[in-house]
Specification:
Nitrilase/N-carbamoyl-D-aminoacid amidohydrolase, globular, 6-stranded mixed sheet, 6 helices, alpha/beta, about 300 residues, about 25% helix, disordered N terminus
């Protein structure tokens, strides 16, 4: 019997790494980390936000860091696709993408055959700050990722996308079982709570990879929530957090029980079970009352 095909535990490696100063150095460090993740049995390796330049866009001239944008077909990105095939392991890599209307904060997921399965650009760019110079993505996407556990439906959000319930909700409605979240900010109690809530309310696993605490304005605390709040054998609810990293640099491993998650999704009342979308029209209304609109202080 092929035991590899009968596994139901998906092993996720969060590469909580400190970036280097150049694209080439980040490439080599990233490739090495992927190899280390594979040695530890990973099925998926995930990088923090904008790994190609270490999210080094603060405190620098805009045109300088814009010049670091690379094409989605660049050798940097393709190298991780080639390595994914070599290692027989999915890799989610992030980069500052060169794009016709201005650079994008982007993510590419390669499957274990080295095939590009998902390309996503951050929808909710932080337009109250330096990210106003980025071009937002247009939509959220879900793909079927071939793994040792079989097909897994995977989507992606990036950092600030986490602040909007609609991001994870749309991915859930598109079938996502697992949402990958590259990140670059302090993951304090409230932001971590957002991830817990997104996983709980959508019955979806959420894996977030942040930069370690040696990186300015970051603090590690990468996490994985499996979204399973209740089990028949437990009288009370359970902690959905199956991994909470510390602050220091490292590769943090989580094991996601897909059989448990899928059984839970079939029986529980969250997600799409009892929604009333016909009553949510205000969510699509651009004419929201003034008190709910943050004043634009950039002018």
């Amino acid at each position: 019997m092929d035991h590899e095909k009968n596994r139901n535990v998906l092993k996720i490696a969060l590469l909580q790494l400190a970036p280097c100063k150049t694209l080439g150095e980040n490439l080599q460090k990233g490739l090495k980390a992927c190899r280390q993740a594979k040695e530890r049995g990973a099925d998926i390796a995930l990088f923090p936000e904008m790994w190609s330049n270490g999210y080094r866009i603060y405190g620098r001239p805009v045109e300088e860091w814009k010049g670091e944008a690379i094409d989605a077909a660049d050798d940097f990105v393709q190298a991780f696709g080639s390595l994914a095939k070599e290692l027989y392991m999915a890799v989610g890599v992030t980069f500052l993408e060169k794009y016709w209307s201005g650079p994008r904060n982007s993510f590419v997921l390669f499957d274990r055959f080295g095939e590009r399965k998902l390309s996503y650009a951050k929808v909710h760019t932080c337009d109250f700050d330096i990210e106003r110079n980025l071009t937002p993505g247009e939509d959220f996407y879900v793909t079927e990722l071939d793994t040792a556990c079989g097909q897994v439906k995977v989507g992606a959000m990036i950092c600030y996308d986490r602040e909007f319930p609609e991001s994870a909700r749309i991915l859930m409605l598109k079938g996502a079982e697992l949402i990958l979240v590259p990140n670059a900010c302090p993951m304090e109690i409230n932001r971590i709570s957002q991830l817990r809530a997104r996983a709980y309310e959508n019955m979806t696993a959420i894996a977030t990879c942040n930069y370690p605490d040696t990186v300015p304005d970051c603090n590690g605390n990468s996490s994985v929530f499996d979204g399973v709040a209740y089990l028949p054998e437990l009288e009370d609810s359970r902690d959905t957090c199956i991994l909470q990293a510390e602050g220091k640099e490292g590769i943090y491993m989580a094991e996601l029980d897909l059989t448990q998650l899928r059984s839970y999704r079939e029986k529980e009342v969250h997600g799409n079970a009892y929604r009333h979308p016909q009553k949510y029209g205000l969510l699509m209304d651009g004419n929201i009352h003034e008190p709910f609109i943050r004043k634009d202080y950039r002018k």
